[in-house]
Amino acid sequence: xxxxxxxxxxxxxxxxxxxxxxxxxxxxxxxxxxxxxxxxxxxxxxxxxxxxxxxxxxxxxxxxxxxxxxxxxxxxxxxxxxxxxxxxxxxxxxxxxxxxxxxxxxxxxxxxxxxxxxxxxxxxxxxxxxxxxxxxxxxxxxxxxxxxxxxxxxxxxxxxxxxxxxxxxxxxxxxxxxxxxxxxxxxxxxxxxxxxxxxxxxxxxxxxxxxxxxxxxxxxxxxxxxxxxxxxxxxxxxxxxxxxxxxxxxxxxxxxxxxxxxxxxxxxxxxxxxxxxxxxxxxxxxxxxxxxxxxxxxxxxxxxxxxxxxxxxxxxxxxxxxxxxxxxxxxxxxxxxxxxxxxxxxxxxxxxxxxxxxxxxxxxxxxxxxxxxxxxxxxxxxxxxxxxxxxxxxxxxxxxxxxxxxxxxxxxxxxxxxxxxxxxxxxxxxxxxxxxxxxxxxxxxxxxxxxxxxxxxxxxxxxxxxxxxxxxxxxxxxxxxxxxxxxxxxxxxxxxxxxxxxxxxxxxxxxxxxxxxxxxxxxxxxxxxxxxxxxxxxxxxxxxxxxxxxxxxxxxxxxxxxxxxxxxxxxxxxxxxxxxxxxxxxxxxxxxxxxxxxxxxxxxxxxxxxxxxx
Length: 614
Hints:
The protein contains eleven helices and 32 strands. It is an alpha+beta fold. The strands form seven sheets. A seven-stranded antiparallel sheet has the order 20-21-32-23-28-29-30, covered by helices on one side. The protein has a six-stranded mixed sheet with strand order 2-11-10-5-6-7, with no helix packed on it. Strands 22-31-24-25-26-27 form a six-stranded antiparallel sheet, with no helix packed on it. The protein is extended.
């Protein structure tokens, strides 16, 4: 037997190994029946061996799943295997001139074009049948196939492609990741997946007309353009792009016959704020100048040029990440008196990512030596005068703040939370006074008043005209936002807490306090901040935030917009196990007894009625 296999081309070394393996087997074990699992069906491809067509055998074995993926094909795959085995052996072994046909068949299968490949296979087989070059059983097998499977076919082929391999988009804007099917076929009842490559997570899953899975990192920001599905457009829109959205995204499409995919990269871009200058220590011939800008992405670089556009080398630069996962940059340089003018340039690698600011320094700014008398005046009298001016202004300012705070306390109103406006991940207490982050997302009914994308809530009652003051206890929270908003503000999609959008607020994140304006303003806290007071003076278009525990003015909006839309109190907190509490008018721990302290700060002849004019 070894000799017979050796004549067919098998190596003697392999045959000896197989003979030894067979000799070591227990014949009794081979006759025992073996259990088979329910889902372990496996179809083998068996053919005769001939050196002339071993490459063809490799191609057919490689693509064998394509031949029995369909339920109907899997039932007749045995017959197809016999057909392929017999007529391949006959054609290649005896009629070498037909090798071009098999090259065509292999190329069809390599291109996943099953319909053309199998059509060629069927036509050639029928030609051989009617030419009477195969055995009679071939005619019987093909008759069975044609009788029982007259509608045997494969689905239409397609390719998935993207118009662009990368998408640059500004942080906060919307990104459209394009993905199309070619040729255009209706994808409404098929399966579409969008995946993020850096963590292999599923971003969006569409199947049979409905969205099944949305990644929590993209909740409320994902939109599949369903109106275009019938034209083969399976593009995805991501709203309010963040820096963390950077990376590769894969569009995966599948129907019952085949699948394909393509990848697009999202590149978030942020051009920072305009450079701001700060003048530090200076002498008679030079001074230290710093240039600062924030919110850049990707990482920027900074440099200085002189009046002749020549780059200055001796400068320091510091680039640090901020809480928004972007970068702040600060660069400093010593400015010589002879330079007259220098410019600060900050840029990153993105197109258009350049900010420039120039500063002119007059000669009069640099101090000159003017004798002993001038030195005495500058060194002694000027500091004394400045100290006196500072002390007088401080005393007057302190009295003014106390009068303003006392007036605010006299206009205390009752404020409640409106649960119909609360985001689904916020928890509002039954007494409408306590706000916290819910441990799980609640099943609430959406309405046109409820915030859908950010963890915000409004007050229940509009603020009356005139003057209103309320207190919020924040000692149990290190992350919150408090203020007022117009009733018609945007509640879904991209929301910017800025005055031009109808929001006037202050915010705390850990130990950082700031007022949310076009360029955020840091707030310095004196003492301990346990309760925030909010004072609205509609008559003078003012909004003032107080430290309710000591009367400190935290921040003041001088010109709030009071249009036809009413103002409502605004609140937000977003960290688990933290909460803020709205104080009642008669709540003793929220309203300190500051009236006596305030009165002690006023002049003895001060008329209490004058407070109404503040």
